[in-house]
Amino acid sequence: MIIGNGLLANAFRKVVMPSDTLIFASGVSDSKSTNTLSFQRELDLLTSTIRENAAMRLVYFSSASVLDSALTSDVYVRHKIECEQIIRAECMRHLILRVTNVVGNSGNPNTVFKFFVDRITGGNSFEVWTHACRNLIDIDDVVSITVALLNTEKPNQTFLLANPVSVMVPDLVSALEDRLGRKAQAVFVPKGNCAALEMNETLSFYKEIGFNFSSDYLSKLILRYVDRMQ
Q1: Segment 109-154, tens digit of pLDDT
Q2: What is the DSSP-derived secondary structure letter of residue 110?
Q3: CA dihedral 126, 168, 193, 59 (to 10 degrees)
Q4: Within the chain, what is the greatest distance between any pair of CA atoms?
Q5: Rounded to whole angstroms, how far apart are CA atoms 104 and 224?
């Protein structure tokens, strides 16, 4: 059972899932949103879904941002933390995935990857925070790692689903410029940070299932998705 119509939901519809699994992929997709009504709609749908499907194992997509102490006052982060708390309190069987920046063939302009592609191709000015980084992961890898997690014997788990290597934002913009053949109208600002993710458990699981992120992972993402986003 899959709830949602976005990038994550559609990706999981392409694979065979255990019959007792419920993929909850419906919610606020814009991490910059402050729309309390949208957040409440997700909370209402989440609680009703748990109540109506008590026997199923719920898979919920949270955000790795909940681990960033600098974002504790962020509205979106607080919302994700609240959703996690509801699941742990009310859902007997669950898998909470704290996901980083997912890249896929989506028209959602709020994703990091799509934002930069649109700004560069459109010739629009935008800020580049020189000290910031982003952790990018292919939607297909999100699916395959999630399926592997579901095949473990753990009934309840919170898992950081991330790329072991983050990319500095100026480097990402430069790589996109090379692929698009256009110079970004970027204003470089000495802001941001690149907080390290605690990934011991994550890396141990990747090793267990034989999953590797190649050294040219970013290049492959760009080759696979940039042309589809224009």
Answers
A1: 788 899 999 999 999 999 999 999 999 999 999 999 999 999 987 8
A2: T
A3: 100
A4: 53
A5: 9
DSSP three-state, residue 169: helix
Distances in Å between the alpha carbon of 192 and those of 72, 130, 134, 189?
15, 7, 11, 9
| Residue 222 in tokens | 């760009």
Supply the range of the domain harboring residue 9.
Answer: 2-229
Q: List b or e across 92-126, with b for residues whose CB sees 16 or more CB atoms inside 10 angstroms.
A: ebbbbbbbbbbbbebeeeebbbbebbebbbeeeee
The token pair that represents 169 in the structure block: 């934002």
Q: Are 84 and 96 in contact (CB under 8 A)?
A: yes
State how many domains the chain has.
1
* Side chain identity, residue 16: V
Task: Identify the weakest region by mean pLDDT among 15-19, 105-109, 158-162, 185-189.
Answer: 105-109
| pLDDT tens per residue across span 53-90 | 999 999 999 999 999 888 888 899 999 999 999 999 99
Q: Which residues contact 173 (CB under 8 A, 6 or more apart)?
A: 116, 120, 128, 184, 186
pLDDT more than 70, % of the chain: 97
- Alpha-carbon gap, residue 213 to 167, rounded angstroms: 13
* pLDDT more than 90, % of the chain: 73
- What CATH number is given to the structural domain containing 141? 3.40.50.720
Residue matched to tokens 């492959």:
220
Degrees, nearest 5: CA angle 135-137-140? 170
Residues facing residue 61 across a β-bridge: 97
Q: Between 2 and 38, where is the model more confident?
A: 2
